[in-house]
Write a structure and sequence with these properties.
The protein is mainly α. It has 2 domains: about 80 residues, Multidrug-efflux Transporter Regulator, Chain: A, Domain 2; about 50 residues. The chain is built from 6 helices and 2 strands; from the N terminus they run H-H-H-H-H-E-E-H. Strands 1-2 form a two-stranded antiparallel ribbon. Helix 3 packs across helix 5. The chain starts with about 25 loop residues before the first helix and ends with a helix. The relative contact order is 0.11.
Length: about 160
Amino acid sequence: MHDDRRLPPGSLRRYERPHPHRYTMPDLEAESGVTARTIRYYISQGLLQPAYGRGPTAVYDADHLLRLRYIQHLKDERMPLNDIREHLNKLSPEDVAVALKVDMQPAAETWRHFRLHDDLHITVRDRSTGERPVSHDRAFDLIVEYARSVLEDLDRRADE
């Protein structure tokens, strides 16, 4: 979502990387702040590519969302729609992302490895947000506790 406060001319809003999934028209409206009627108008004027599919099953991708945001930015700069269309037609999806200062690379994943035994390790993903549900931490603790008790039991049996 964008911030509705007016920014000084030449400023760009800071946007998060769009989700990699497809957007329905209501999703695209909610994410971009642009009405369905305006989105359809932009498509008819060649500012946006048509949706994938037709009717209620039509979907849009991250490029549609970023181009809508960029169109809004250029309109805020008082650029006429004809000039915006010419400008956008020269840009790749990556160019639009760079213009909006959106990092399109997926967040790097970090994995932690826990050694329970020489032959047994557990791997846990650290989320980029740094948050993990408490239930997952508790599940991890229970798994480790159970695995260690089983390993100790097996070691005792092997010694008998």
